[in-house]
Amino acid sequence: MSERRDGQRQGERYGARNRERPGGGTAGPRKSQDIFDATLDLLAEKGYEGLTVEGVAQRSQVNKTTIYRWWPSKGALLGAALTGARQLDLEPPDTGSLQGDLEALLHTIVTLLTAPPASDIAVATLGAVTHSPELAGHVREFFAERMGREQPVFDRAVARGELAADTDPMLLVDLLAGAAWLRVVLRQLPVEKDFVPRAVRTVLNGAGAVTERHQL
Amino acid sequence: MSERRDGQRQGERYGARNRERPGGGTAGPRKSQDIFDATLDLLAEKGYEGLTVEGVAQRSQVNKTTIYRWWPSKGALLGAALTGARQLDLEPPDTGSLQGDLEALLHTIVTLLTAPPASDIAVATLGAVTHSPELAGHVREFFAERMGREQPVFDRAVARGELAADTDPMLLVDLLAGAAWLRVVLRQLPVEKDFVPRAVRTVLNGAGAVTERHQL
DNA sequence: CAAATGCAACGCAACGTTGCGTTGTGTTCT
DNA sequence: AGAACACAACGCAACGTTGCGTTGCATTTG
């Protein structure tokens, strides 16, 4: 039932991304933005299974033939819609300390996974990875690109002496982000207030008791 | 002839009434085991979306009506099938040290997520959590029960002085298991040989550089 | 004009449901 | 004991519905 209850995607609707038809860049239907909006809206509302091409066509005021002429499948359509979605663009932080950066990073992730309407899109998309190889490819690229953008956080930390130079940044990110995913989606437990600082502290300082600490 | 053959025992279909049958086990259709097997097989083969009730009926040599008489939906059927699946029962380890236990635990998880055929079932099931609230409930219970069974690992570690008494065990498990999930499913990267020991070492000792370590 | 879109219909598969007949296994009644 | 019965479970066939993805042809639009 809910109609356009979002309202923040609208602003960037005319972002001129797919508008270059004559020039010959990225092609797409004339109303591609409407189609993408409808796709993400419906994904958020009904999940990946409930997302239907015919539903998208109806909401975006487009014939379903048009959609099929440009994208061969539901996965491809969603992939294209996500590519244009700025909602998942998270700026990597720079707070001055590694702990601060990681806390900001994890906090952003938790927010993305819990705060509607972005959370509906994010959770449904990541959950659909196991169903659509096409989507899986997009998600893989997304994570790879994100990792690249987060690299400076760790470079700075090494420069500050907060991190051993041979540390694997991806492992740290995976530990933190993975814990958030597991907690929110699989365990379906609320994220306590201190989840973020505790997780970061554990990853940085360890949970080991006060026994010996082998120096490097 | 009497024509009251069906439709009146709706109330006692699933749930409470699954008692003694000739087989002596938990009941359902006579060939429930065949049905469950077919369900998990097809799930592994085609994923959650490709899993169809009619496919299960065909493979298990049962009419689809029979399946619908006992389970109202695909999610319910899969939930029932998973309940009987012993493949996901992982014995919590007891190696003598916390590090050893956690490595064993994480190794089991990584194996479960990567080694067919169990991995197909596990990945598809966990991925389907975002699509079926019914399944989500089962998964939540599964994780809760697992956490309970893993508790002794941490109790022993505290007793040995390897872990501060106020440590949150679930956080450690979530960090490790979440990282595995993210690495395997979302990033779709291979798990390196030393992933397990490195992850455990990070969680126990921290990734912080050799600066000061605040002593408790 | 030509490309893009609209439209209507199609075959296909799976959904979930229904009515009715059949099987199998106990129970009861001579 | 053996025939008759009761009843739950099962099979079968068909139904209407939805969504998929496709096709041929008319119409709009730049």
Automatic annotation (TrEMBL), chains A, B:
DNA-binding region(s) from the entry: 52-71
Listed SUPFAM superfamilies: Homeodomain-like (SSF46689), Tetracyclin repressor-like, C-terminal domain (SSF48498)
Domain HTH tetR-type: 29-89
Residue numbers spanned by region Disordered: 1-32
Annotated Basic and acidic residues bias: 1-22
UniProt keyword list: DNA-binding, Transcription, Transcription regulation
Annotated GO MF terms: DNA-binding transcription factor activity; transcription cis-regulatory region binding
Highest taxon of the lineage: Bacteria
Protein name per its UniProtKB record: TetR/AcrR family transcriptional regulator
